[in-house]
Amino acid sequence: MDRVPILKIGPVLLVSIQVDMQDQVALQLQEDLGERIVATGAKGVIIDITGLDIVDSFVGRTLSTIASISRVLDAETIVVGMRPAVAITLVELGLSLNGIRTALNVERGMELLSRSTEPDSPDEFDLDLDDLSETTSP
Amino acid sequence: MTETVLLQLALRREQDVFTLRQRGREAATALGLEHQDQIRLATALSDVGRVLLARAPAVEVVFRVCRHPDRLRIDLAVDGSVERGPLQPAGRLVDGLEVVEHGKRTVVMLSRRLPVTGALTELRVDELRRALGMTAVASPLDELATQNEHLLAALEDVRRQRDRLTVLNDELEETNRGVMALYHQLNSELEETNRGVVALYAELDEKSSQLRAASEAKTRFLANVSHELRAPVTSVIGLIRMLSDPSSDPLTPAQQEQIELMRGSTSDLLTLVNDLLDLAKAESGRLQPDWQTVSLDRLFRQLRGTVRAILTNPDVELIVDEPGEDAWIESDEALLSQVLRNLLHNAVKFTEHGHVALHVRSDERNWMFTVADTGSGIPADEQERIFEEFVQLPSRHKVLGTGLGLPYARRLTGILGGSMDLDSQPGRGSEFTVTLPLVRQA
User: Which residue of A has its CA nearest to B39?
Assistant: First the structure.
């Protein structure tokens, strides 16, 4: 079974999903990521879904779950590189992607993370749909 | 309205949903849908497929191209009913989502309008179908699923066979148990019978020894009685002789006659007692033959003389063979003489006309002495009885005799190692044959 690679860049874990994921792969990623966060003590996770064309309700829910688990493990999750078509579909599908912060690309995501992990900086957890709508307009 | 089926596939596992959305995407691309619409359709298919698969074990999917207006229709059919709620979000991604129930089956129909720009000729649809069909067949997942099904069927087959074998085995064991039970039963019955037979044997043994004891007692009794009787009878005979002696007082004629009667009776009595004593001696086994070489010629001459002396009937002729000077036998002369004499006396007693004959012949090992007469003969059913003590056949009662002669002769023959046979027919006479070995048998 294929696995999605998880790369460690400084204090951040980078997950790059390049192809359409099967359900099993998505669940495996969820498990692997939790372990890597614990093992590396990473403070942030960036999930790059540039290669992902289809995000149905299951994959959306899985991304939400990954974000929630990461937060419980004291790591911030940011989803980056979402394609416009995917974003439109998600909105039309009525999927909210609860608790997921988004950024346009990896670079912005890194910035966002470094800002939020700075001491005294205010936490911005529940941006949710606000962030989403922001990213949908490139 | 024309419809063309593009593709058919079945969903059974989660992975199949993945396949479904891939195929949906391919179909949408091939039919010239925009990128955004491809994504919408694929996502909608993914969601609907997932919802349906959660409620039914299998979903049948058919992709169709419909004309006027041109649109892509995808039917997902399952057994049982389906809630519409969870399907609503996916409905927003396509132009139409209908849920139709046909009896027990529910069909979810997704449709998407096709762009008018693309010239959707029959030829192109055909090509499309072939292309999609090719990839469908080539899909390793489908192939794997098929193989899996075959494997499952084979496993099921094996399981059924094993069950059947188990049943057969059980039956066989049952039969085996039955056979064993039968065997045990037979065995125990056989043992029971065996015990019975053994018991019977023991009983027979006991009876046999009782009989032997009784016989010995009888023999002893006979010997004692005979011995005790002989002394008084001898003295009575001596007294009778003294009474009738010319030197004693003369008797009246009547007394003379009575004395004669007494003499006859007492001499009969003595004969009887002597015979009894002989028989008892023979039976007790104390009679030991005195083995010697006996000349048959001499023996026969003596017999001729003694038998002629008692043969008073002129109608009966005595014929005795002449065996020749060199004829001999190893035997006891006295006992052999007794046997033949008894037989001859017997023949003389019961023959009124004709002849009494003593013949002899031999084979390699035996002498056969035959005493033949032309007397009344003995019926077949009584031939064995005449060898019993004190037996005289009813037809012969008028003849004097003790009934001990034949049993005694036969007993002596046995002691000499031979046998005695009788061949007789009423009215035609009797023929006793004594077979004795040439030389003494060890």
Answer: A54
